[in-house]
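Postdoc handover notes: sequence design on the structure in folder B. Input tokens:
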């Protein structure tokens, strides 16, 4: 029985560590600095479109840093992936709303 339990414990998958193996600390710090700068720029801009771009850009930088630090399979990375998809949708909607669609029809002659 003890041998069976020992085999079970050694053959089961061990959980991954908190930090993913083989990532560059310099790249991670760069992504976090860019994220911080985008958050600072968020408070300096007056236009709502630029604020949305800075907020979504900072979220994308956080996602990249999270993906690099924790790996692709971490639950935090999966959650950040869905939030990043939402940020991309917000950026697309903001860009589409800025288009003046009335000028695309052409002149009626």
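Designed sequence:
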């Amino acid at each position: 029985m003890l041998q069976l339990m020992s085999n079970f414990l050694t053959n089961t998958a061990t959980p991954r560590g908190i930090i993913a193996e083989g990532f560059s600390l310099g790249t991670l710090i760069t992504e976090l600095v860019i994220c911080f700068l985008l958050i600072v720029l968020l408070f300096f801009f007056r236009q709502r479109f630029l604020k949305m771009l800075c907020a979504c850009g900072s979220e994308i930088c956080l996602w990249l840093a999270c993906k690099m630090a924790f790996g692709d399979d971490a639950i935090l990375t999966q959650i950040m992936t869905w939030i990043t998809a939402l940020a991309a949708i917000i950026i697309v909607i903001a860009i589409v709303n800025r288009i003046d669609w009335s000028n695309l029809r052409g002149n009626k002659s």
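Context for whoever picks this up: The first helix runs from residue 2 to 11. Don't rerun without checking with the PI first.
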